[in-house]
Amino acid sequence: MTMNIFKEDKEVVSTDSLKAKILPYRQQEKILDKWLIKRLDTVLPKVMKRSGIDTWVVACKEYNEDPMLKSLVPCAMMTARRLTILVFHLEGDKVKRMALTRPGVGLDGFYEAVWTNPKGSDWQDKDKLMPFDSNTYENGSAPETQLECLLRILKECAPQKIGLDFSDTFAFADGLSHSLYQDIYEILDDDLRSKITSAEDICVGFLETRIQEEMDAYNGIMQIAHTMIGEAFSSKVVIPGVTTNDDVKYWMLQKVTDLGLTPWFDFEVSVRRAHIGEVEGEVVIEPGDILHCDVGLKYLNLCTDTQENAYVLKIDEEDAPQELKEVMRTVNRLQDITISFFKEGRSGNEILKLAREKAIAEGIKPCIYTHPIGYHGHGAGPTIGLWDMQGGVPGGGDYKMYNDTAYSLELSCKCDVASWGIELTFGAETDVLFTGDKVYYLYKRQDSFHLIK
Question: Which top CATH class is 210-452?
Fold first, then answer.
């Protein structure tokens, strides 16, 4: 491993012991900025070459940021500044990175400043740059605007294709506002206009691809999620007959914020009960119940998404009933079937179809809704089913799988549980890494119930 932020603990019984492993903000910033440079130097040339686009323009305004912006700028630049324009030009195996923005916004060392106002302005002389009573210089010439600079840079690049962030399929690649698109289009000549194309393949490819350092750290980040759930689903938190499912949910939300991390969606803890199935709303937890959670946190710009299950033991029980353990094994088998069809170049819809066919042939009643994960919880990359679209997902499901990507292996199956008198819908979710044409569970997956006494 090139970087290992976490020690390789086999089991951690308390989230308190993880607190020391959460790095201070300053150290996190150093790591993320270092990763950014490597991503811009290695991932971006690869995905631009793969897309066939040699020049990429990312433009957005403060408070209406392009979803791509945060993945392209250092931590110090938390938002766009007024109008921010970044231009990337592929030159052989390298990408020239240019910033068409004002100085002092945190991009120094990451981008070449190319908006220098060659008509005579001086950034350090604000009075000369923008006289109080006039927007012209002493010689009568106005400063170069950012859009004029963009036109100049594009002509210097002589691009074959100009990628802009608009897409019907991926929200991540649809961040160019209508007004900015019009402004850019209007300043270009006919030749440059004819070269405009969607940059969605660059956007998705850059967001989904993990460098080695990120892959190394992801295992430890998932350790946090699994450990927190294990503590929540224990007698440390749950008192049967007293504690509610919402009590457990808010314990985990509070724990995440106490650790200095960020929940990326509202957590869920639900109850499944014999002869009823899922119980709606907030309810007191009783012996014999199954607790199910859906939890997602973010650390070092990487998201987790995890669903696990606990069984609340009755007074005369030492383990979960055999019928329920069989249900767990069925879900584990569905996980194995699904990842067995992960293959570079295979679309999400193809993986979905193959996995469902094999599962059904084995007598499983599957529902597969696996999604990419990374900078976003529902991340960029191929969608492998949605819970209400088991026949395939147009657009996102047609995108092909690549190596060095991560996925939230989310799915469920329906199983008859005779002692409960119902067909139980039982879900599980854990994160996996696809690299070197192989699939790896990040930290671990759940293969037995958490037991609450």
Answer: alpha beta
Structure tokens belonging to residue 326: 């069989």
Task: Answer yes or no: are the C-beta atoms of 314 and 241 closer than 8 Å.
Answer: no
The CB-based long-range contact list for 229-237 (8 Å cut-off, 24+ gap) reads 229/293, 229/295, 229/306, 229/308, 229/450, 230/13, 230/450, 231/13, 231/14, 231/15, 231/255, 232/269, 232/293, 233/291, 233/293, 233/308, 233/310, 233/450, 233/452, 234/450, 234/452, 235/452, 235/453
Enumerate the domain spans of the chain: 54-198, 210-452
Q: Taking residues 188-209, what's their average pLDDT?
A: 98
Q: Are 234 and 75 in contact (CB under 8 A)?
A: no
Helix/strand/coil for 407: strand
Q: What is the DSSP letter of 40?
A: I
pLDDT for residue 3 is more than 70: no
Q: Which residues contact 286 (CB under 8 A, 6 or more apart)?
A: 240, 241, 273, 312
* Residue 345, Ramachandran bin (φ over 0: left; ψ between -120 and 50: alpha; else beta): left
Average pLDDT score over residue span 438-450: 96
Average the pLDDT over 385-408 and give the result: 97
Q: Which of 403, 425, 404, 400 is nearest to 414 (CA)?
A: 425
Nearest to 241 by CA among 199, 287, 282, 308: 287
Measured CA to CA, the distance from residue 159 to residue 143 in angstroms comes to 25
Compute the distance between CA of residue 296 and CA of residue 333 in angstroms, rounded to an integer. 23
Q: What percent of the chain has pLDDT over 70?
A: 91
In this predicted model, what pLDDT tens digit does every residue of 21-57 receive, in sequence order? Answer: 899 999 999 999 999 999 999 999 999 999 999 999 9
Mean confidence (pLDDT) of the chain: 92
Tokens describing residue 424: 């139980």
CB-based burial label for 49 (10 Å; 0-12, 13-18, 19+): middle
Spatial distance between the Cα atoms of 85 and 196, rounded to a whole number of angstroms? 16
Question: Do β-strands 450-452 and 290-295 pair in parallel, antiparallel, or remain unpaired?
Answer: unpaired
Name the residue among 256, 168, 174, 178 with its Cα closest to residue 207: 174
Phi, psi of 95, rounded to the nearest 5 degrees: -115, 125
Q: Is 264 left (phi over 0), alpha (psi -120 to 50) or beta?
A: alpha
Quickly state the pLDDT bin for 126 (edges 50, 70, 90): low
Whether pLDDT at 127 is above 90: no
pLDDT for 101: 87
Q: Which two tokens stand for residue 156?
A: 């210097």
Distance between CA atoms of 379 and 376, rounded to whole angstroms?
5
- Rounded CA gap, 446 and 453, in Å? 19
